[in-house]
# Entry
Amino acid sequence: MKKKLYMVVNEDRFFLSHRKDIAIRASQQGYDVHIVCKDTGRRKEIESLGLTMIDMPINPTGNNMFEELRTFFFLYRLYKNDRPDIVHHVGIKDILWGGLAARLTKIHGVVNAVSGLGVLFSDDDFGLMAKMVLRVMRFSNHRKNISVIFQNHEDMQLFVDSKIVAASSCDFIKGSGVNLDVFQYTPEPKEMPIKIIFTGRMVKEKGVLVLIEAAELLRNEMQDKVVFLLCGGLTNNPKGISRKELESKCDGRYLQWLGHCENTRELLMQSHIMAFPSYYREGVPLSLIEANAVGLPIVTTHSYGCKDAVDDGENGFIVPVKDSQALADKLRILINDRQLRIRMGKKGRAKAEQEFSIQDVVDKHLAIYKRLTTV
# Structure
């Protein structure tokens, strides 16, 4: 009989962009794979992969307790009735409620993937809500036959030091991986203007406003030479940036907000530089992994996860968080030095091949599944 694997993610689109390859390979290896997520209209894409999708009631960015309890009881009833062999929770909210449901229903194997800690843990001094979340996760993660996957060492250390999880239950997988055959190294375009791209949700902590400030610092000397492309949709995140604010700051020429971009690969391949000044608690941002793969030099921050994608001075530059002047200064260097861009881009591709191959990521997940089901 096939082992049942339930992968729980916030939304269908996140599954398709970040976890699809793992689920497909698991299915090929004989697992009965179900994707549990919010349906935002992409169910058919998931089902076309030969996977079963279960629509989950969840508000990914909300904190209404009624909505939160509805998500928890949905997962509790699902696990109690279906009895999956492994549940794989991706992200803090799914780990919180799915982990608790799995503990109470005595699910055999649990994988909790910490893909960054997000806005809730953005302050060094955690608030009451963050402390409550940590307390619940401490209860649900202290059990047998569990793997807690981390993408950066700071998050792992926080969980171990806070006694949320035992060090023996931790696994380290650096990022979500990238298909190196799809995101191929691409020589930078020869035509002007130079395109500086940001890909990510329009959230303040992603550094969007810092990037806009840096662009304005460069406007007088660069507006005939450079365009800034902000590629990302609006969000219900409490720290999200409004359409009105974005449209007021972007002139559609030098500064362009493109909205949600379905195919970021093409945009990356047509660009010259990646700017990603995030101070969000990232895992390892997929934006930076993909930028490395296609050969873009990167300017990012010395923040959780971001610094794990860049070797300062090698495949890009690392600047302090919330420092638009430092960001502008490093962008100016890259704008004015084509050979440096090319050299850094090639080193970025080499880093992607060494550290971020989707095949390695998938293999590590399958090994964890096997370990949990053979106990």
